[in-house]
Amino acid sequence: MKDFHNTLDEQILYHPEQPSKTYCKYMVGLQDLSPAEKDIADKMTDTYRKIPTTFKCQIAMCKGTGCQASGEIPLKTKFDELIKAKGLEKDIHIIETGCRGFCEMGPIIEIFPQKIFYVKVTPDHVEDIIEKTILNNEIIDELVFQNTPIADEINFYKKQTRRVLGESGVIDPENINDSVAAGSYLGLKRCLFELTPDQVVEEVKKAGLRGRGGGGFLTGIKWGLTAKQDDPIKYVVCNADEGDPGAFMDRSVLEGDPHKVIEGMTIAAYAVGAQEGYVYVRAEYPLAIQRLKEALEQATEVGFLGNKIMGKDFNFSLKIAQGAGAFVCGEESALIASIEGKRGMPTPKPPFPAERGLFDRPTNINNVETYASVPLILRHGYQWYASLGTDNNRGTKIFALSGKIRNTGLVEVPLGITLREIIFEIGGGIKDGKEFKAAQIGGPSGGCLTVDHLDMPVDFDSLQKAGAMVGSGGLVVLDETTCMVEISRYFMSFTQDESCGKCIPCRVGTKQMLEIMTKIVAGESTMDDLKTLEELAVVVKNASLCGLGKTAPNPILSTIKHFRNEYVAHIVDKRCPAGECQALRQFHIDPVQCKGCTKCARVCPAGAIIGAVKEPHEILQDKCIKCGACMSACPFGAISVS
After folding, report:
1. Distances (CA, A) of 224 to 35, 189, 199, 212, 508
2. CB 214, CB 244: distance < 8 Å
3. Is the dihedral of CA 69, 72, 78, 80 positive or negative?
4. Among candidates 354, 392, 394, 391, which has minimal Cα distance to 373?
5. Beta strands 276-282 and 317-323: pairing type?
6. Is the model more confident about 610 or about 54?
7. How many C-beta neighbours within 10 Å does residue 509 have?
8. In the predicted model, what is the mean pLDDT of residues 158-167?
9. Does residue 446 carry a pLDDT above 80?
10. What is d(CA 464, CA 461) in angstroms, rounded to the nearest whole number?
11. CA 186 to CA 359: how far, in whole Å?
12. What are the φ/ψ torsions at residue 393 (nearest 5 degrees)?
């Protein structure tokens, strides 16, 4: 851990990566300063809020996992080299932030105080950025997204309401100074100095915060159930397992603003009477774990965790428990078993974790986004939080936007926004001029939404009525080239592989459903198989032990409901309308466009193409092995697939 400064001095202004205990206590109102110290602290606060007074400019460089993968590390190295070579160390300060959300455009940097936002930055651009933008206030057009140099004016950000993600991508997540300058731990201070535990629970109830991990259960109600238990030992647990394919909300919050999660968990501990907590995070998130570990150490050193928090008679400590990546450990009781060192498998309910959870003690479990929302409620008040959203669906929700869409990334929007706004305004619409077909929401446990749902409010209740769910927040956009049968088979393959095997309906039922789905995409099924598939889906949904098993059939049930014609085409016509299922693809040669060049026949490994030179050719369907080599070789576009 980096050394803490117990007093303020000017040196900190030039090394702001060094956290200051005095500064943190001053910012939350726990310590007075002399006029000279106050002047330094105020300058630091201006610096951390990105209105530099000490430096000529600051560069916020996204170091989320996505931007790292697209080249942030060599970019940072190049900046460091040139800044040193030009003697600009006291003029330019770089902070490496968490995810900014616009993953499609990484690496991303933002230059303050001008707030110039650059995308797809490479080491080759660094010289120009320093000389033109930083030293001469010139905008480099090729690095600007759609001619808009200010992030807040880009459609991707303009339609968002970034509350949980408000500081992610702007502050240094490895420095508690940055977090407290942005308001962290003010909500905790209000709890400890102004509210009783019961009043905290009531505040969260009035805010209408629902769990952001999938089920959408009211957070205040859950806290109240844990708080009323008589056991003197209680636990608070954060579910950061996040096993859905394409979901990366929790990871990004932990990477970009870990103190918000720590503060939320500490507030929860105060409200329910817990003394110890765990963050259960999958080991595949090394950067999130590293930053969370540093944040825990810094919060403890400052006095925002540990014994006598903020000088009050309240003790709470947090530990990190790393998971091995089992999807089922996203379920509460399986997660608890994993922390205890047992095999991650669910248990029947009741009793619920609030009654008997970790080590048989009352336990409150929420996910990352839920805990990160809590400090905002306590800092600004429940009325402020509830001002966004719809009835029974208050606040914002983070979605991981991916698939056949122009702008992929992480978005935070008010509950009640329409799917059309998310996809076509924030997401920029469908790639390559294709038509929107469906959106798979909620991951393997969710369902699909169609064109008919584009103007439906995206919230817990509306999605449930439509046969889908918010889930953890995965949102995969599909276009006209997507086979809905194959996408359902993929999700069933995932859930079957991840089934813990404890209960027969899930263990056997998902295997049988996957076998039928495999037959369908291979063109080897009958309509009786479709009937059996629907019956199996209902049994698995109703009889499985845990929520993951109960929701495993959702993708199949929703695609059968909305795209039954595609299932029938696969089964009866032995045809994949999207041309995606290889076993059912049929290649055809247009005799008008075919010039008889013989290139297709020469590359066909099965000898399935016949025809004379300079005469239209023909594909023998009984010999074709569906490889597509002919289509790739044809220079005239005469070969199509259906």
Report:
1. 44, 21, 11, 18, 38
2. no
3. negative
4. 394
5. parallel
6. 610
7. 24
8. 94
9. yes
10. 5
11. 32
12. -145, 75
Q: What is d(CA 482, CA 473) in angstroms, rounded to the nearest whole number? A: 21
The per-residue pLDDT for range 573-586, each reduced to its tens digit, is: 998 998 889 888 88
Tens digit of each residue's pLDDT (9 = 90 or more) over 617-635: 999 988 998 888 999 999 9
User: Residue 543's pLDDT is what?
Assistant: 94
Helix (H), strand (E), coil (C) string for 419-477: HHHHHHHHCCCEHHHCCEEEEEECHHHCEEEEHHHCCCECCHHHHHHCCCCCCCCEEEE
**Sequence-distant (≥ 6) Cβ neighbours of residue 450 within 8 angstroms:** 437, 438, 562, 563
φ, ψ dihedrals at 516, nearest 5°: -65, -45
**Bridge-based pairing state of the strands 317-323 and 363-367:** unpaired
What is the rounded distance in angstroms from the CA atom of residue 107 to the CA atom of residue 129?
Answer: 14
Q: Put the strands of the sheet holding 276-282 in their side by side order.
A: 317-323, 276-282, 235-240, 363-367
Q: What pLDDT sits at residue 403?
A: 93
| Cβ–Cβ < 8 Å for 272, 234 | yes
Half-sphere exposure of 462 (CA within 13 A, CB side): 18
Tokens of 454: 């584009």
For residue 162, CA distances in Å to 82, 122, 157, 165, 490 come to 33, 27, 8, 5, 32
Element (H, E) at 45: helix 35-48
Which residues touch 564 (CB under 8 Å, ≥6 apart)? none
Query: Could you tell me which of 284, 246, 324, 325 has the C-alpha nearest to residue 491?
Result: 246
CB of 467 closer than 8 Å to CB of 447 = yes
For residue 543, give every residue at least 6 positions away whose Cβ sits within 8 Å of its Cβ, in sequence order, or none.
503, 505, 509
Predicted pLDDT at 473: 86
Give the Cα-Cα-Cα angle 436, 438, 439 (nearest 5 degrees). Answer: 115
In this structure, how many other beta carbons lie within 10 angstroms of the beta carbon of residue 230?
6
Q: Find where tokens 């080599």 sit.
A: 629
User: What pairs with residue 439 in β-bridges?
Assistant: 449, 477
587 neighbors 626 (Cβ within 8 angstroms)? yes
Find how far residue 421's CA is from the centre of its chain.
19
Mean pLDDT across the chain: 92
Question: Does pLDDT of 90 surpass 80?
Answer: yes
Give me the phi and psi of 59, to 5 degrees please.
Answer: -115, 115
* Tokens found for residue 8: 């303020």
Distance CA 356, CA 533 (A): 37
Residues 6+ apart with CB under 8 A from 622: none
Round to whole Å and give the CA distance between 522 and 516. Answer: 10
Give 28-85 pLDDT, tens digit per residue: 999 888 888 888 888 777 766 665 566 788 899 999 988 999 999 999 999 999 999 9
Q: Which two structure tokens, joined as six digits, stand for 393?
A: 């669906």
Q: What 3-state DSSP class applies to 93?
A: strand
Q: Which candidate, 48, 25, 44, 47, places its Cα nearest to that of 188?
A: 25
The SS3 assignment for 339 reads helix
Cβ atoms of 435 and 457 closer than 8 Å: no
- How many angstroms separate the CA atoms of 9 and 26, rounded? 14
Comparing CA positions, the residue from 461, 534, 519, 498 lying closest to residue 542 is: 534
Q: How far apart are CA 184 and CA 166, in angstroms?
A: 12
